[in-house]
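Structure tokens please, single chain.
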Amino acid sequence: MALTLYFAPMACSLASRIALYEADIPADYRRVTLQSKEIEGGGNYYDVTAKGQVPTLVLGDGTALTENAAVLQYIADLAPAGALAPAPGGFARYELQSWLSYVGSEVHKQVFWTLFAPTSPPEAKEFVKTLIPAKMAYLNGKLAGRTALVAERFSVADAYLTWALMLLKRIGTDLAAWPNVDAYFAANTERSAVRRAVSDEMALQANT
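Here you go.
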């Protein structure tokens, strides 16, 4: 099945690229400029999705799927069984969904959306930074001795959290304050698919 991933370099859509690379699933990659909604090579991104946000995964029949949790699980279900997500219906799959929800709501939307939204007042940005230590402390407790969130195996939830931790580091968060998180991040950023995805998107970002 032909897939097209609409992405912005080093945005949350990086998690979907990591998942596609991990599963060795071929896809076309269409770059989006989020500010203008222009698609590289031509087109307006609002014609792909009225949400105007990445990622969007377009299937071979033209169906478009949005939202990180949905896109990541769809990719995982295309991969060999168990490679990127536990099988549907089992408790571990609900754990995966729980982690995708946590990263999406507690870190991605609550922290990053406020920090990077052009309309956020300075006071809101400073306040949201005060929430980061508690979130890192929670993760630190859950990640003791672990390099994967679910079933002791790298999953799409790890792809999403690894991206989020990258962005936390970029805004000045010192992960060394939470040793388990730091070790988890170090292990996952050494994965070949993660390194390749980051390298590809950093190169695109540098050429902007």
